[in-house]
Design a protein that fits this description.
Blueprint (H helix, E strand, L loop, with lengths): L7 H6 L4 H11 L4 H17 L6 H22 L20
Helix pairs in contact: 2-3
Length: 97
């Protein structure tokens, strides 16, 4: 997502961790980072500690959230912006469509 939004190189050069990257995604209103953070913690546990999810419901939640994220992210995967500007509020001179 950061690559498609034109921020990947910047985050890599600055050595941003997962929390910093999800904070930027939140500012860009691309994903729900709280959910993404929980899913990433579960992924880290499974991948790095070789620990299975605690129960089937937790695993199903993981799969559902990943499916939702992929569905939400797919339109962004087909385009890349060379530069981006974003605002946390709409400037007064901007018309919202």
């Amino acid at each position: 997502m950061l690559y498609c939004a034109g921020f990947w190189e910047q985050t890599q050069k600055r050595g941003w961790d997962f929390a910093a990257k999800t904070s930027l995604l939140k500012d860009l209103r691309i994903v729900a980072p709280d959910v993404l953070g929980r899913i990433n913690r579960l992924r880290n546990t499974v991948e790095h500690e070789y620990s299975a999810p605690r129960n089937v419901d937790q695993l199903n939640d993981f799969i559902d959230v990943v499916d939702l994220f992929v569905a939400h992210a797919e339109p962004f995967a087909h385009r890349r912006y060379e530069s981006s500007e974003y605002f946390t509020t709409v400037p007064k001179h901007t018309t919202v469509r």
